[in-house]
Write a structure and sequence with these properties.
This is Aromatic ring-hydroxylating dioxygenase subunit alpha. By secondary structure, this protein is α+β, with helices and mostly antiparallel strands. About 20% of the residues lie in helices and about 25% in strands. It folds into two domains: about 290 residues, no CATH class; about 80 residues, Rieske Iron-sulfur Protein (3-layer Sandwich). The protein is globular and about 65 Å long.
């Protein structure tokens, strides 16, 4: 557990807050490229600021917009009539991998790291987003808990992976005969190792099997508020948990394919069945009990809330309240990545208060040399699980039609 004062310090993200200062040192997803089609001025609410994405007078950028104090924190339709506040700050913006990234910090923006999602061609990436009504930190922390998938995303039946394109855990673990859904059910208590890296944290979950083999699942925390996780053998997910304000956030996901071009029409169709436009709010939400169905819970999924794992996560993090009360929590062994991340965040906040930005991850020219990160599922001999994971990653990259070399 932590104090109420510390909980405030690590969650609040306004312009004059310690955590907000850290987040502003990084490029943040502000909108989907698709949204640029709706007008030359697209409203964006980001890090507690009311902004507008402007593409009508030179380079793409964010400007401060005139907004009422009581407006809803989420998106509303774009319009050329949106009024810009000439006294407010402006921020640079860049299009990358189907999303528009913005830098809200002072000084020169850091370089983009050479992550797979940024160096894959447009044909092999797809971006989407979704609204969650909770603080960004609890949204991130569920993504760096490898044990939660065995419970929250427990499927009581195993689908044919051939029918699972664009859906997480609809694959065979490590290209073996074992469906991921079965492996997560059968081995719910992984051994978890966490290593600090140049980009954040490498999180390795080991599920030791009775036959002398180990399933190795490598996921990553990309500082300050992103994750990179395997979706399937073919695809990874890089997901940012971007604060709209203190009590609302968007997850922005870039799906990256190492094999065939992404079927963008199918993936967009799948996700629009679960979200509304223009604000990308989920159709299953607190007001309709996330479409909970007790009959489904008895036979199909642990939550009884359908097969979309985003809904399971949404229910879990929104159920903690707008800002999770961490003064009563009791972290355990499986929360090691959460503990390590909070230490990184606190170090970064302390550094910013001492005007020591250079000690933050990925702030210098070396960021462009960071590749990957490794993010996959593999199965190998328990005595040599690390090598099995590494070789599985290299094998996938070797067959990639774009330069995914590491």
């Amino acid at each position: 557990m932590i104090s109420a004062q510390l909980n405030e310090r690590i969650t609040r993200i306004g312009p004059d807050t310690p955590a907000g200062a850290v987040l502003r040192q990084y490029w943040q997803p502000a909108a989907l490229t698709d949204e640029l089609e709706h007008g030359t001025r697209v409203p964006v609410n980001l890090l507690g600021e009311r902004l507008v994405l402007v593409q009508d007078d030179g380079p793409l950028h964010l400007a401060t917009r005139i907004a009422s104090a009581d407006e809803a924190p989420t998106h509303y339709p774009a319009s050329e009539e949106i009024e810009i506040d000439p006294t407010g700050p402006t921020y640079p913006a860049e299009q990358r991998a189907g999303a528009v990234f913005a830098y809200l910090g002072a000084g020169t923006p850091p370089p983009f790291p050479n992550f797979d999602c940024f160096r894959a061609p447009d044909s092999h990436v797809f971006a989407f987003k979704g609204l969650w009504e909770c603080n960004w930190l609890q949204a991130l922390e569920i993504g760096i808990d490898p044990a939660h998938a065995s419970f929250l995303h427990r499927f009581l039946e195993d689908d044919d992976p051939a029918d699972g394109y664009g859906k997480q855990f609809r694959d065979k673990a490590g290209s073996t005969e074992i469906p991921m859904t079965k492996l997560l059910r059968d081995y719910p208590r992984p051994e978890i190792n966490v290593d600090e890296t140049d980009y954040g944290l490498k999180i390795t979950a080991l599920r030791h099997m009775e036959d002398g083999r180990t399933h190795v699942r490598v996921t990553n925390q990309i500082f300050p508020e992103a994750i990179c996780i395997p979706m399937s053998r073919e695809m990874t997910i890089t997901q940012w948990h971007v604060p709209v304000d203190d009590e609302t956030c968007y997850w922005f996901t870039i799906f990256t394919s190492f094999d065939k071009p992404v079927n963008k029409d199918l993936m967009r169709e799948q996700r629009l069945k679960e979200h509304r436009l223009p604000d990308y709010a989920p159709l299953k939400n607190r007001e309709n009990d996330y479409h909970y169905d007790p009959e489904e819970q008895a036979s199909l999924t642990y939550t009884g809330m359908g097969l979309d794992i985003n809904v399971h996560d949404q229910w879990a993090v929104e159920g903690m309240g707008a800002i999770q009360d961490r003064t009563q929590e009791h972290l355990g062994r499986s929360d090691v990545a959460i503990i390590r991340y909070r230490r990184m965040l606190r170090r970064a906040m302390d550094a910013m208060e001492q005007n020591d930005r250079d000690t933050l991850p990925m702030q210098d020219d070396g960021a462009a040399r960071i590749v990957g990160p490794l993010s996959n599922d593999a199965i190998g001999d328990t005595r040599d699980w690390a090598e099995a994971s590494h070789l599985a990653d290299l094998d996938r990259r070797a067959g990639c039609p774009w330069d995914a070399s590491v």
